[in-house]
Amino acid sequence: MWHYRQLAVLFYIIQIMFDICTTAPSLQNTTCGYQSCPEEKPGHINVHVVCHTHNDVGWLQTIDQYYRLSVKRIISSVVESLQKNPNRRFTYVETAFFWRWWEHQTPELQEIVRSLVNSGQLEFAGGGWTMNDEAITHYSGIIDQITLGLRWLNDTFGQCALPKVGWQIDSFGHSREHASLLSQMFFDGLFLGRIDYQDIKKRRAAKTMEFLWKVSQSLEGARSYLFTGILPNVYWPPKGFCFDVKCADPPITDLNGKMKAYQFKDTIMSQATHYKTNHLVVTMGMDFYYEVAERWYKSLDRLMYYVNNMDSGGKVNMFYSTPACYLKSLNQANVQWSVTTEDFFPYADRVHSYWTGYYTSRPSLKLYAREANTFLQACKQLSALSGVQNHDIIFLKRAVAVQQHHDAITGTEQEHVAKDYTKQLYFGISKCQEIIEESLKTLQFGNASVDGSYEYCENLNESSCHVTEYNEKVIAVIYNPLGKAVKHYVRFPVYGQMYQVFNEKGTSIQYQITPIPLSVQNLPGRNSNTWRELLFQTELPPLGFNTYPIREIRDYMPVVDHSSGIFSQTEHDITLGNELLQVIIDKNSGLLKAMVLENETLINIRQSFYWYEGQPGFGREKASGAYIFNPISNRALDLSGNTTFRIVKGDIVEELQQTFTPWLSQVIRIYKGMKHLEFEWVVGPIPVGDWRGKEIVSRFETDLESNGTFYTDSNGRETMQRIRNFRPTWSLNVSEPVSGNYYPVTTWIYIKDQSRNLQLTVLPDRAEGASSLYDGVLELMVHRRLLYDDVYGVSEPLNERGIDGKGLVVRGKHYLLLRPIDSAVFEMKDLAQRVLMKPVITFFQVNFTDDDVEELETLVFQRKFSGLQYELPPNIHLLTLERLEKNKLLLRLEHFHEKDVTSELSQAVNVSLVDLFQPFQIIELREMVLSANQYLDEANRMRWSVANDSDTRHEEPIESLEPANLTVTLLPMEIRTFLATISVNLPDMEITSVKNKLS
What we know:
By secondary structure, the protein is α+β, with helices and mostly antiparallel strands.
């Protein structure tokens, strides 16, 4: 009989032999991608084990803290473990972290990592700079952040690092437009983690957890489809099989191996009832797992051994795999897939828990992220037009990319992390300010040496600007990043009462001095005492700038003008308006009462602010918090009971300045020549002294008959139809009639009345949650202050303290359009572009001595400049103009209208690039996929079969469409991406001399 010590020695020897067998050195295999996938076993359930980690680019800690304290150990540990066994695989996603880790490694270790990538052991999924949010991100930010990540992977590792699968496993709902962008980037498939709990229940029963997503109603062919799968367990390990140091589950040993194998098999058999093929995926990872990767791999090695050698019941083949290899197996399974056309909003993970609060959380950060993205586009454009090559632009590119993360722009991070995001954006913007200054100097002065600088009004959102307040003479240089000429109203705080404003020809133009609303004058921390703003209209060339010299006049006699002024009492309803639009203000309430169009169409409309009381989270209810919108009552409370107002009338703008409460005010403006109303609101600090969290909405109530239907944008591109209390493919159990009907609005929301041929559209200046809870009504949530955590991980209430610690004050805008249906969409999209791509305003300051002050009057420079020889067509947008090398540009052109046979703007458009740009000529184009990491003629995608569908266009391969004679054809909703070779004309550009008539 064996002694127990002899048994122990034998067990030890067996353990050593097992480890030796499973830790063979990695082979230098250069077969990557689908060719590196492991072999399957026919007649078995093939279980693809995906080892992965999810590394939030900021959440409870800042991006720097996460890297130092966790991520660098995770990647190093994984690389070490992968070398021990060539069968092991790992999937990594967030390039922002991997880039940082890579920069700190030795050349020897970098070569080891390259070999792991080349052998397929280390796979990148998604591959963007971060895993972006899908609800409230704008498509331009999504494209840029994915492009940044994929191009770095390509430059560093080559084609073996090319991600073929989207991996959106932690986004809080999923947009159709995001999937469309991935399809245009030539991803073969997409895997999702979170969809509504009612939807997933239905899909499990119907075995439609994997499907073809019809991602566009306008695009045709393969680009309009993307294979999509819902992961079985979000992205977590199955219960009982978490082997991370953070987990309590025991590791797999020879003592518990058989028992755990049977338990795992039971899990697999249950999962198999929800999927169509004999291939199943099991995610083995979670947030910041794998700091000790060997702990995972040793347990998984043993579990695979015992599962694969089971001798009873159904046959299971368990092996290390990747998302791409799992996708390949599904593609080869000879299955016809169902088609889905809707998106996956709103998302609820259980009853009373709709993740619709984050659509609005941290509204100030949402605005800053959007404005930083616009500033980045202008920075890239001016660098390309001027020839200025400054690599510091990368700081803003990375900061804006990080902002797209699903715990950044969403507002679901801790407050100290939000402040860190703001610092990153501020630093990146400061670097781009230097680039813009250098570019403008080149374009305005050529090679001339000028002792001057360009300054910015960084605090215009609080009506504070040192440059305009404390200088008698300034020159405003205003750049338009759009490919069409625009008329844009600008306003700056000033102390003076009379000015002269000149255009580029030296001609005096009309201006108006307008009082700053009292609520803005009293903003906490405002660094200004002035109560006046100077307002005038600019005319800006496409992709160019114009200059406006401004001079204060001190020696003048005041003139009384009885046609304009300020008043706050009236015996009759008040009419404000211009030649295109009029509004009627109720004399008693001071609220908007009606609108009258130029054709005398009248609509009754009331606008006011309301508030919901946030659920405190006692008992079984989820609290309203950073993620969740869960009001106590379905009825919002009106804040207009004690509204006071005053009217401001002038030659350029007429205003209604309203005060609802000491912490809530608004200005309604109608500018000369404009078809829309502007609502500028100031909300905060929201009072919570009654210990009640409050969620503030702006509500527009009309007599339009909308029949329970409204429309929202999808990441600023195509429009989605929404129907109240309804989901297109499953029966909705309405547990939350308010939050369950909220949707993300990145750019627009509207309702239509077909019988009256009217469309009412509201466009926010940042992403917001919005809905139509009643017919004829739109409401948008503008601010939230809550006192309880919703217990989804952020571990603090959404209670931003603001600059003075009393609560955050937010200033923002809504734009309202009331137009006939046939023209409404074009005007809506045109306005949306102008709201997003606002001009960049700088002020040129010449450094004169006291004796040289008059030199400003005769300063010679380029007053007006356009980067284009002619405007782009009205339905075409220059999405990207970015210098990559001295003679190489990245160019994207976009058709931003959807397919509609009744509209001329929805037809195909030809754009000639011959002599389109002034500073350079394009001499060669090569088309790329949307993410600019593959040439289109070298890219390919999988084909899929569709069940019960006669439309097989998705099976057609996408062919490269080489532009003939530099003429590009764009179809509705199409974005085409090019690598352009240019010859530079800039050194020969003539600087026009125009005498400045400031005196």
